[in-house]
Design a protein that fits this description.
about 120 residues, globular, alpha+beta, four-stranded antiparallel β-sheet, about 25% strand, single chain
Length: about 120
């Protein structure tokens, strides 16, 4: 059964476009990860300042393997070879997308990682 991971990233009111730009710069970076099934970046339309990063995975082990990978570390502003370690629920992608490998300041002020599975509706 698939699992869904949602990273709820709180950004300053004027920083949403920058968050979207950084995710766009890394579009497809996780596509080849074993067990990865899909990604969406959801922009709020109701005045909130919380953006949602929604990913779907084949199983928890696939998500954990990606979260602990060097690819995750690079995409989240960690030193080469560093996986998630502490704070994996941080502002995913907020530091990503630096030109020339230069580390950018995080866009997100805070983040929460939510975990879900599709509900069995008995159909």
């Amino acid at each position: 059964m698939s699992i869904v991971k949602i990273n709820a990233i709180t950004v300053p009111a004027d920083s949403g476009d920058e968050l979207a730009r950084r995710f766009a710069a890394r579009a497809g970076a996780v596509d080849g990860q074993p067990g990865f099934e899909g990604f969406e970046l959801l922009q709020p339309t109701d005045g909130r300042n919380v953006w949602l990063v929604v990913t779907r995975w084949a199983d928890e082990d696939s998500f954990e393997a990606w979260k602990n990978s060097a690819s995750f570390g690079r995409g989240h502003g960690r030193p080469e070879g560093a996986g998630a370690g502490a704070g994996a629920e941080g502002a995913a992608g907020a530091e990503a997308g630096a030109e020339g490998g230069e580390r950018q300041r995080p866009v997100g002020m805070s983040a929460e990682l939510w975990s879900f599975v599709p509900a069995d509706l008995g159909r």
